[in-house]
Every structure is written in structure tokens, then in C-alpha cells.
Known about the structure:
mainly alpha; 10 helices; single chain; elongated
Amino acid sequence: MNKLIKLEFKRTSISRYTVSVALMTLMLVVMCYFFAFVSKMKPDDAVSNNFLASYEFVFTMVHLLSLASFSILSAVIFSKFVVESYHNENVQLLMLYPVSRIKVFLAKLIVCVSLTIIYAVLSQTVVYLLFFVSESLFPILNQPNSLSVQFMAQFPKVLEVAINATLVGMISMAMGFNLKSIPTTIITAIIISAILCNVQTVGDGSPSIYISLLLMVISVTLSSKMAKKIDKFELRGA
């Protein structure tokens, strides 16, 4: 399995995704300050709605942006490593590998899942650390006690974004695979992430555990069906 994973990295360069994540990280940092300045730009609204002048508002908005951004990035990664591989001229080469077709598919999944989680965790950690340090030294909202509490509360959410983005990517991959369409993969991710972001605006701002479990069940089920279809490629001589 390790050899298959290494082969996937040799076949497909991840530099473009690394650059994309760097740009996304920069964008998220900028958005942190944008949301922090909302209360300064609209002081009347901030007076009537204290939430707009809080770190909770800043971190909640960045959390939603992170979820949407990494869900779409996840779909792009799954499209490149999986959907494209099984629906172009490379599929014939894949069928000639002297190993189980399911193992090849699992290796691709491991690569995609690992990249999504690593990118999401590293990017969000950098964003929150930079904002926390800068706010500690040069505060915009000047709520030191709230800053510490909200900052610590983000660590579970960092993992939450990484996991949910991965699940969204897997579901989108299955849709794109079935329809033999990379655009379908991306569009599916956009739709699902939009739904998740709306769910997070209800209650305490975190997605329901039931929604996350549902995503997991759907992604595992669809991936299992994909594995069976891919295994039949060999039997059909595809």
C-alpha cells in the first residue's frame, strides 16, 4: 500500500494545491481582520448587536469560510486523483497494475483524505495563531478575556472542518465518478458545503453531530459502491 501511495504522489504533483492552500490561508487571515473591523465600520449596528463586536463573530465567520473553502478544495483533489484517473486514457494503465484494483482505489482515497486533513489543519492553525498573536499585541476589539476563550474553542472546530471537508469531498467524488464529470464533483461540493454552513448558523454555530454522522455514512456507502464498480472494470476487461 505504501508503494501505491508513493506512486500516486509521483504521478500527480501537489504543488498547485499547496500554493492554493497558501493563498486560501492568506485570504482567511485577511477575512479575520475584515470581520474584526465590521464593528468599527458599522458602530450603530455593533451597539444594537453585541455579537458583531465580538471575537465569537470573527471566529464563527472564518470557520464557515474555512469549511466551504476546504470542502471545495477537497472535491478538487478527489477529482484529480480519482475521478479523472478513472475516466480518461489513464484508466487502461490503471487496469494493468499487477495489484488489486481495490487497493489502487484505496491508495488514492488515502492520499486525498490525508492531503485534505493536513491542508485544512495546518491552514486554520496558522490563521488562528496569527490572529491571536496580533490581537494580543495590537487589539482591534479589545476583549482579551473573550479572545483567549474563543481561541481555545477553535481547536476542536479545526478538526471538525478537516473531517467534514473530507467527507464532502468523498461524496462529491462519488457523484462525479458516476456521472463521469469533474464539474459535477465541484458543484456537488459547493451545494453540500452551502447546506452545512447554513446548518452551522443555527444554535451554537457547530454542525449537528447527526449531520456529520450522516455525511460519514453516505461517504462510506458511496465509496464502497465505487470500489465494487472499479473492481468490475477488471472483470469486464475495461
